[in-house]
Design goal:
heterotrimer; A mainly alpha; B alpha/beta; C mainly alpha; A: mainly alpha; 74% helix; C: two-stranded antiparallel sheet; globular
Amino acid sequence: MPDPMVAAEATQGAVSARGAHLSLSRVAIERENDEQRVVGRLAAVFFLAALLFAIYGWLQGDTFFMRLATEALIYAGLALSVDLLLGYGGLLSLGHALFFGLGAYVSALILKDVAPSFWLALAGGTLVGLLAGVVGGIIAIRARGVYFALITFGMAQVVAKIIYNTQELGASDGIIGIPIVPIRLGIADIMSDDPFSFFILVLVIIAAIYVFLSYATRTPYGRVLSAIRVNEGRLPFLGYSPAYTKLGAFVISSMIAGLCGSLYPMLRGFVSPELMYFEVSTNAVIAVVIGGAGTLVGPLYGAMALVFGKSVVGSYTEHHLIVIGVFFMASVIFLPQGFAGFIKDRFIGSQDGRS
Amino acid sequence: MKKSKITKQFAGGLFAAAALAAVQISAAQAADPVKIGVLTPLSGTYTGIGQQVKWGLELAAKEINASGGILGRQVELIYEDSEANPAVAAQKAEKLFQVEKVDFLTGTVNSGATLAVGQVAERNNTLMATTVSFSDAITGAKCSPNVFRVNAPAGMQANALASWLGSAKSKPKTFYLGPDYEMGRSTVAAFKQRAEEKGAESIGEVFAPLGAKDYSQYFGKLRAARPEVLYTSVAGNDTVRLMTQLQEYGLLKKMQIVGASGTITSQNIKAIGDAAEGYVTGVGYSALIDTPENKDFVAKFNATNKADPDLYGADSYGLLYFFKAAAEKAKKIDTDSLRTAMRGVSWMTPQGEKTMRAGDHQAIMPMYAVTVKGGEFNIHSKVEADKAIGPDTCERF
Amino acid sequence: MDYLQFVLAPQMLNGLSFGLAVILMALGLTIIFGLLDVINMAHGEFYAIGAYVGFVLLGMGLNFWLVVALVPILMLPLGYITERFLVRRVFHSADRHTLTLLLTLGLSMILMDVLKITFGPNTVKPAIPVSGGIEVFDVFLPAYRMLLIAFGAAVIAAVYILIYRTSIGAIIRAAAFDKDMASSLGVRVSRVYSMTFAVGVALAGLSGILLAPVFSVFPTMGHDFIILAFTVVIVGGMGSIKGAVLAGLLLTQVQAVASLIVSPVWTDPILFGIMVLVLMLRPQGLFGRLGYA
């Protein structure tokens, strides 16, 4: 295991000038380690809570809340993919539902018409996410800021419309009749309609995605991506290519979105064009912002809060849009760093004394 | 840090407790109520339809409860907002089946939601019915043993309208204008086929994108064709735009406009204004049906809701009587007995007697050709139930 | 010749009347972006509010043209308040573009639901104020649409004169070009911002009431052509009035003519493709920014 100080310093080099600022980067490293600790604890709490929730639900024999939580986890995965772009790359995507929906459709078609194979459907969803991400990325990457947002939005609209009009894909009714899928894991077999075990499976998948992204954002590549958000213009002078980095991030993000999308038909048994609509993309963005952009763990909390919140609020009033809108705006104005960002600042600030 | 651990379980428990409490408070008697889940759009574009569905069901529930309920048990309606989105509808349906443990579900409006929820109903071994969705597939290619329909699907509407066309005009030159998506195209195709059987001469068709703002770009083609009859299957706001733009360009006086029953409804007729005069369509219901039962129904509906019932309200009202008739026939309300009882049962509704066809779970009912006069749907003629109903194309059961 | 007379010419004329309304909406957007560097995702909702306010006023019996004059005036305070109390909160952060986009996105969600609660979900439509039309060369030209073209052109001209030929306009352009310098020269930049945002919103509302008799009024109407408006702004150049006008005319003509050649469903992807091309080849649009062009 290399000396962490040296390794951290080497990777910090992408963002700060080398040599002369040794003491400054040491402080930055320490702060970052503190942040990682807090984020790590938040993540541990999240997954532990989810596990306890699952056991409780299993003991109660509950189906609805387990499935709702599974759906929330799937959307949490989508939120993670949006956070990679927004929180780390500074790229706001308003059309990520495109990759999610494509993954869902491909998965549905595979399960229904090819073979009810979990791994094949998952692979198919991820693959279509990859392909669409490459195409979409090449188109969108040239643009920055609001232009990027508008292009991603437009892409999602166009493809959603095409699918809405395609008979073979179920048109406006979508595709129903997705069979229940047996999932062979070597150690155990799970049926996709068993609420408890499917929830655990999805939890494991999301945890894996989280760990992967958590790691990736700390590699040199991930640092360059963060650097893009801070000061894109400086990067070429340091020898990095922003375009390729952005494209890479975009493709990773779209693959994750496609993968999460492929889980949806297994849970609900159908897909429809609404999965690609603006509302799904916006919900992911809202989850990221409320949870805390750039923390990865924040979007997880945000997505759970959003899905459960909608379900609870929806039972009392049909004006849930206003409630969500108000929360969202309040978050943007008063708490732009989101829930996780707030926790981070609180806990690091209170240990203040050194920095 | 303790926040999230406790919050989640707390929220789950709180919700279950709240649901339970709500049930206790609203139950009118000590005896277990019959719970009917109503999953209908309470927000979004279709709220107007959801509103009528709600009104119709509530009136029926009130009447049934006042006269002793179903098998001695009171009827309780439990609402959830489907947002006209199949993904949301499926999730809320599961909540209704699993948490509320409803005995029956209804209220879905768009066909995608009905199909998706039907699947959830199958997996939860409960029955559901739609009172609005008109895609033929629901009782046709995609039929389900747990899904029933009490309203008229597109095919029946087309039958009624074509029948009127055949008797009102001889060999009319007909032009078709539909919204460019799968449902719009198939509605046009279905009517075209039936109209041609009655002798109409099809002279052209054009499809406009859903939500098109300006239909005037199609008027050139329309003018050149010089049709006597224009059939359209647009709906909602699109109809408002199409009709008023036709009027703006002076085309209304030259043609007879006919359309699908969802094209001009109580939700958009006010906005269309006098451009709707003379429009003809085939529907299962009109507030002006001249029977004592209907007059009574309309009066009661108006008194409570300050608005006339439309086909969605009337069909939803009739649904509870359908359920009641089947429950009394079966003497119980578990799924299998109900299903058997529902097949072939007949029940009275404000628009006449309906019978549930066993082969595809589609209600057989008389249809009416109505024409708009003074903002109301006047009855022009009636098509008997056996002529209006189409063939049974459901093969699953 | 027949085709030209009966199909193409009327089509282009309709594209023109539609285009002018889109330009009015895009003008508001581009001015707001050009000066404040703010993306207003709620612009469509302001368009809808203008239509509803106009509808209510008409319901009170006022003359249509009076209402058309009143609506933008009533929208001004709404825009002012939005800028002053909402947009300004996130204005000074580094992530301004993203935050204002998100903020106005949340605002649009709320406004749409409020409209639905206040006015009900069903469509309403004010009557067309001027019915009938003229027949020119056997082609029917509705009177209201002709008036729309004339009126729209007049408003655009007025805005142009305001921005480029008055001292107020000079102040606005100066604040867009270099706000610190303008501020040090005594310009109350924050006041200019609020007023400009208000004017942008008023233009959207005006567009709403002008189009209401033709396209009808319903809570989600804001989404009808917000995309088109954004496309016009991007192609024309964020902040450029000339650009908005030219791009607006161009794109609506492309849409009108294209829908004759291909199925109309494809006009959206075509316009989207144009937007992407412009962004890839000439990201600043046809004319660039407000202070600069």
